[in-house]
Every structure is written in structure tokens, then in C-alpha cells.
Amino acid sequence: MTEFKHTTVLLEETVAGLNIRKDGVYVDCTLGGGGHSQLILSKLGSTGHLYSFDQDQTAIDYNQDHLAPYIANQQVTFIKANFRNLKNELNQRGIDHVDGILYDLGVSSPQFDDAQRGFSYRYDAPLDMRMDQSQELTAQAVVNEWSYNDLVRIFFRYGEEKYAKQVARRIEKVREQHPIVTTGELVEIIKEAIPAAARRTGGHPAKRVFQAIRIAVNDELGALEESLEQALDLLNDNGRISVITFQSLEDRLVKRMFKEKTEIGDLPAGLPVIPADKKPHFKLVNRKPIVPSEDELKENRRAHSAKLRIIEKLQEG
């Protein structure tokens, strides 16, 4: 059994945000180490059910053992799929509506800490970065085959890298001589491209470029937007979605989508009441994102950038 140890961030707050009903149907879009799934299952009765998604087979395998008692009671169904296929996968299982959906975004600690997965700039490993190891596109393909313009675009857009052009140009120069195949090689290329003064501030110099490549390889933002649209459509009245983000691009996307669903449309001045067709169908449960407590930050340094946003579908009529 592959170990999949992972300290779940904002565990209690995220599950509490779903307002679990014992007989409800819930979805954990990011099974990972099973922390959120386990807590949801502990609150469900015999007629409640949880559908847990993960595109990483390692997570599914680990939780076959970790959540074995709930599997035996037929309370949980594992689905190996990208959560962008949320609605289709649930529909195939006869589920059209659910009472709550949870997202814990980004890369899990076991994925980061497994050097061979190629997610981390701290280990020398093959350039991979695939969350779903059955997909074809890898970080090596992005680095060696994508055009200079495409590399600049993703480094700037997904990594917010100030020196996107310099890094892309350096990559282009090196790959003309030989393929770039390891994370260690890429780290050195990035260091060479970024001015010395800039390397001394703002954390590890490769952090932003690695984030950008990972997002591109897994189409993380595209998958999130598609999935959230489906999730909002799947909710029963009074159902909720809890989303934990770990970087600004994800958080801005979630914030924008939730804002669009909860704002009142443009109205003529002086209307005594809001017309029914202009009333929002959702409300924000927390106006400002929930962030980890000081105690949690002491226990888990990887929680420092986490933000939790929760939305609820309003009852019709």
C-alpha cells in the first residue's frame, strides 16, 4: 500500500461549511488523503452517501484501506476522474442533485513529497507534474515542445512571473542543444535567467515557473471553472459548496464566480421590490474568506495561503 499522509487544511471549517445532513448526498471533488471525506462520512447516517473524486490512482488505492469501514457499509463511492467531469460521472450513477460539494485545490503533500512525480523544485526528478498519470501531456513536453510565446504566456498568466520572457528565452536556448528532462535542470535554467538581485527575494526563484507549468499540464484553472459551473447546477435547495484555494489565481476565479451568482442584476432606480427573475439564487455564507488559525499555521506551514469560500443555493419560491 502506497502511503498518502497528508495534513488536511481547514478540516473542521470546510466540512462544517457544508452543513451536513445525515441523509444527504455529498461530493468530495478532491479525495487526496481522505481527511475531508472521512469527516463527512462520520457525520452521515446509513442513508447518506458520499462520492469522492480523485484523478490520482495513488489516492484511490490508499483510501480503499483508509476508508474501508465506510466502503463496507456502502456509504462511499470512489470515482477516478478529473472533477471537470463531475456532472457526467454523477449522472452515470443516477445522481442529478446533491446537498454539498467540497474542493480542496492544488497539489497534495504526498504528491509534492514524492520526488518522482516532478512537482517540486526541491528534488531532482523527471519533469512530469501530471496529477493523472495516465494522461499524455507532461511538464517535459511543455518545456521542450511549447513555443517561446506559449511559455511566456503561461509563466506570466499562471505563475505571475516577472521574468517570464527571460526564462522562456533561456529555456529555448538550452533545448536547442539538448532536451530538458529533469526538474534539477529546469531549476538551474530558471536561476540563470533571473537576475541575481531578484533571486534573493520572494522565495525560491523557481516557485512561480513550476506553478505555471503544473497549472498548464493539468489545465487546473480550466477544470476548476468547468467543474464549479456544474457544481452550482447540481445543488439542491439549501445545498452548499466549500472551496479551499491555495493561490491567488484559483481564489480570484472562485471569488468571481461566486460573486456573479450572488449579486442582483442591474435594476431601474426606484423599484419598490426586486423582481423575482432578478433575485439571486445563491448567497455567500462567508463574506470574507475563512483562513487558518494561528494554531493551525504552527502545526502545518503549508496552510499559510489557504482561503475557504462557501456558497449556498437559496430555496426557490
TrEMBL record:
It is an enzyme of class 2 (transferase). GO terms for molecular function: rRNA (cytosine-N4-)-methyltransferase activity. InterPro entries: RsmH, SAM-dep_MeTrfase_MraW_recog, SAM-dependent_MTases_sf. The keyword Nuclease does not apply. The keyword Transferase applies. One of its GO terms (biological process) is rRNA base methylation. It catalyses: cytidine(1402) in 16S rRNA + S-adenosyl-L-methionine = N(4)-methylcytidine(1402) in 16S rRNA + S-adenosyl-L-homocysteine + H(+). It holds the Pfam family Methyltransf_5. Its EC number is 2.1.1.199. S-adenosyl-L-methionine binds at G34, G35, H36, D54, F83, D104, Q111. GO terms for cellular component: cytoplasm. It is found in: Cytoplasm. Keywords: Cytoplasm, Methyltransferase, rRNA processing, S-adenosyl-L-methionine, Transferase. Specifically methylates the N4 position of cytidine in position 1402 (C1402) of 16S rRNA. Belongs to the methyltransferase superfamily. RsmH family. This is Ribosomal RNA small subunit methyltransferase H. It comes from Pediococcus acidilactici DSM 20284.
